[in-house]
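Re: export button greyed out
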Amino acid sequence: MKDYLLELNDFQREAVLYDDGPSLVVAGAGSGKTRVLTYKIAHLLQNGYQPHSILALTFTNKAAREMKERLAAITDEYVTRYLWMGTFHSIFCSILRREAQHIGYDSNFTIYDANDSKSLIKSIIKEMQLDEKTYRPGVIQNRISNAKNGLVTSKAYIQEKGFRDYDYRSKIPLTGEIYQRYSARCYNAGVMDFDDLLLQTNILFRDHPTVLHKYQEQFRYVLVDEYQDTNLAQHLIVKRLCENHLHVFVVGDDAQSIYSFRGANIDNMLRFQDNYPTCRVFKLERNYRSTRNIVDAANSLITKNKEQIHKTVYSEKEKGSKLSLVSAYSDYDEAYMVSSKIMDMIHYNDYSFSDFAILYRTNAQSRVLEETLRNRTIKYRVYGAQSFYQRKEIKDVIAYLRVIINPKDEEALKRIINYPLRGIGGTTFDRLQAAAVAEDVSLWAVISNPSAYRLATSKGTEHKISLFCRLIEGFVEENRTATAVEIATTVIKESGVRDVLYNDSTVEGISRLQNVQELLNAINQFVTMRLEQGLETVSLTDFLMEVALITDQDNDRDENADKVSLMTVHAAKGLEFRNVFIVGMENDLFPSGMCMDSPRAVEEERRLFYVAITRAQENCIITFAQNRFRNGQTNSASPSFFLEDIEAQYIDIAGEIELPSHGYGRTTASYSSSRSPSSSSWDKVRSTSSSGTIQSSPSPSSSSSDKLQSIGALSTGDRVIHTMFGEGEILTLEGKNENAKAVISFANSGVKTLLLKYAKLKKVK
DNA sequence: GGCCGGGGCATTTTT
DNA sequence: TGCCCCGGCC
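Workaround output, generated via the alternate export path:
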């Protein structure tokens, strides 16, 4: 093993070496938090801790994987195999599976993802004949999730006056009832949702001291990453596991706590010392990531928050450039300026695309950016977009697999009972489900024996149901002996999914079939990997558990691809880029308009802005638009009041910026940065935006009426997509308004003349 | 049972 | 603007 201690600074080393009780490492942004955690584990290993006696908990698979890789590099690879390192959810999912019988579950329970949960809540709301506009499924889902994360079971929820009153005041008094039904349904279906994995673990540990004791004995040391993001359920699990030996080492940054809406409680970190009175606090304050200006600017922002652990983050890098603040006329212009700036910086500073990230508050903002980047042929990747396992075709196949290992899985059944179409439609399904609810049995119990439930269905329908039932039973039977890949292959073939996709010769259809093939590869890969790690057998259940807890993060396969990264600020946490754009810095957007009634929520938004700024290593460029198209209309916007929180000395109002040409002529405007001395950047912003130095770009519709080079947004030579004919190129354009026509040469359908009024053309590139 | 189109509606979301 | 839900129609 390398002499790892030499690679740490004094403070980091102190934290790693201290071994005399609970430790809290308050790690500022970019201060080498993961490094400390990794070396701490290496240190424990070197001092005689067995790998299987170390439990290291993270929030993302990616964090766990990266830490494993780093550990493998400084210790031995085989060691990391036996470490208990993973996300809270995956680790306790394994434990729950092992101990399921203690809490009345089968060890083959399946997992509801957020969509499954929401869908179930929706059906319950319908069954209770409540109005979906009053009882918004998303809101109810949040309420239930928060309750679970706060370890409030449905029973407790209904009994507790506080919840009742709160729901009553929110005009959704029956939330407790929905929660109760939701829990019952999950239990009957033999499934757990994400929150259950933590809630049930707590129940397990609370009610079964011998089980708890077993794990207390096993885990001699417990480490937690991103502790500021733990919720009560997680905090308590850790506390229980450590209560005897107090070998607990947690790392986090309270200034980066941005997940309270998911139940994270920053108090877990702020009051760590109350929970562990003998704890020692270590502060890592040296930032290794960013230039001094960036660190100082971020500090000046975050000091405006009241609740925080005091620390002074500093950088010893060069001063670097100031942050820059750029005003744009519209969201479109904002996107255009960002892409221009990227091109400029690449040109003059020798950056590549992958040195840039564009961060925004909401996913909806990515659209304009994407469009603009495409037009400028800038390669980009949107993170947090639909992940592989979220695709419909993949979810469909996964649903079959879920039903095979747990036929009671109601949401999975719902997905596949009529896909591919087999004539079991909504009405029939509702009847089946109503019977299941009325008799308090699983949906599968009704499906596998419909005649026992006096359903008002026809003979023909009953036959269809029994065919479906036999199909599933056949799969279940095969799964006893077949490998995971074999059973998945059979399912795709015999369910009819393959034929449906095969018969769809559209571009989308072909890609869906490829995705399904890719799923088989993924299963194969997973099994091979596990076998290589020395496991005797790898079941379908193992794969499904892994898949259920996987999210988008995992596909960083093309990490080396040279692309600009687009993502929400939330998704950017933990990442770093040489150059960061923070766009849409406007009131009502960032901070979100929904936080304004709560000072705590405003502080969280400010932390979010802090996270955004601290992603930047060299340059941080902040933009806002004076007009933004949102929810179908354009609204005028004002620069975020958070900008006022950044001290003026660290931020510049941008100089000359080229405005979008739209291909209709060029305009160049420059920002008149206010000369008047001002103590806050805010004044400058105001003077800039109100003096309106940025002119509106000409609108596309004002294009000239020459030889009809273009009509509306279309020009000759444009590549377009037609819903029927596919992709093609515009050869000519003619006519006005109602009669505007285009002659288009389609790749697969030949040349067509289309009336623009009817042809819904979509421009590509 | 299943498809199409009008109307209402929009945070963030490690698992 | 784009998604999702529901109601009407085949």
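Residues 262 and 445 of chain A are 35 Å apart (CA to CA). The button fix ships in the next patch.
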